[in-house]
Amino acid sequence: MRGVLFALLLMLLIQLPASISAAEDGSDHWNKLSDLSYKALQLTKAEKYADAKEVLRYFEDEYLSLTDEQKKLSMHNLRVFTTSYEESLKVLTNTSATHEERVDALVELHLLVDAVNSNHQPLWKSTKNELMRSLEQMKDAAANQELQSFYAHFNQFLSEYDKIHAALSVDLPPELLTRIDSYITYLDENRSLIVTTDHQLQQINVIEAGLIDAFETTNEDGADPSILWLIFTVGGGIISTLFYVGWRKYSGEKKEYQTFSKEKEYNRFR
Question: Residue 201: CA atoms inside 13 Å, Cβ hemisphere, count?
Fold first, then answer.
């Protein structure tokens, strides 16, 4: 009996945090938003732009159904989220936009939604190898004084970085993102003025160090104290019940043994 009760307690403690969290923080809604943004991305890749636009409209309705608490976004990140959504919707209907521009916009939106929805390993971290490869190619071109090659690799790097920037704004500490952005902006705005190889390499090395910090940064949210209190309260109550049941059973067995012993002792002297 105690084994069954213990198993039930274990299952409850495992399932309780997830069920409470999903109900309170809107995780189910964000999972749905992530699925919708991915579906819109796949439709865009298939050049079904009208269908992708309809999915984004449904995406908007789903997002607007969230409470302010469930949206889980600061005012700054809310602006980033709104801008990314509006740009995605706009580019799908812009006849002058290229297919690549449309796909990139939907990739950015999906990575952003995933960053909000994921606590441990967001999708944007999967771009590490590609970004770092672009930086290495920039280094090689700068070291060999191959100006045109440097520009080409730098442009490729900027294109890849732009796609994950919105997601980074959700996951990274503001000071880290500002540090990375400032050096990238400086290198971009002064690319025609930076003629010394050492200066170029210095800027690239700082950007690389910042990105390494970004990719190694973990985003593990602490548990809500109110949820922990509820878990311990419910769990404590169940454990207390188990102890009580166990004690009652032990006491009963002890009394039975004592009664049996007394009867046995009494019978010996009859």
Answer: 11
Of 118, 121, 89, 117, the closest CA to residue 102 belongs to: 89
Residue 218, Cβ neighbours under 10 Å: how many?
8
CA distance 234 to 229: 9
Gap between the Cα atoms of 48 and 45, Å rounded: 8
- One-letter amino acid identity for 168? L
Q: Which of 8, 174, 162, 144 is nearest to 100 (CA)?
A: 162
DSSP states of 59-101: HHHHHHTS-HHHH---HHHHHHHHHHHHHHHHHHH-TTS-HHH
pLDDT given for residue 95 in this prediction: 92
Cβ distance 217 to 173 under 8 Å? yes
Nearest one of 50, 38, 187, 18 to 111, comparing CA atoms = 38
- pLDDT digit string (tens) for 35-68? 999 999 999 999 999 999 999 999 999 999 998 8
CA gyration radius for the chain?
A: 30
Q: Could you tell me which residue, 20 or 64, shows the higher pLDDT?
A: 64
Rounded to an integer, the average pLDDT of 220-240 is 41
- Please say if the pLDDT value at position 235 is more than 60: no
The CA-atom distances, in angstroms, between 226 and each of 18, 24, 124, 233 are 14, 11, 31, 10
